[in-house]
Model the fold of this input.
Amino acid sequence: MEGSDSDERPGSRTPPIKGPLAARIAPIRSWFHSRPGGPALFRALIAVTGVVLVAVGLLLVPLPGPGWLIVLAGITVWAIEFAWARHLLRFTTGQLRRWNDWQRDQHWLVRVAVLLSLAALTLAALWLSVKHGLRVMSIKGTFSGRVGVGPVE
Done:
């Protein structure tokens, strides 16, 4: 099957992922697909890895840090095997490009105002997480308290 795209599912209108990611994944996919039950196992591994990344990313979104970047990494992992994730990834990257183009077209004062607003939101989230911490449930009395900086009451 030299001329066909093994990444594409029959009936899908979303084109397969191309580029360095696809080139790195192709030998791994081929190895799995050459084994009995391999394609289903490969899809399951991709699904579970994507779920873990998206879940961790969503947990980190309210905190300062790379929460949305980790969510996008999870969607990218899903896009290796799932057409709906490729569509979502292309839509999301298109929106990010639109945002960057809009911001690039603005006067420098608007760009500074946007940057300062984002910095203020990040600092507010950091201050709230330090001041109030994240409550962690006790596991049979082994650990109880707060995650964060500051005294435990």
User: Anything to note?
Assistant: The CA atoms of residues 130 and 149 lie 5 Å apart. The helical segments are 20-33, 38-60, 67-79, 83-105, 108-132. DSSP finds five helices and two strands in the chain.
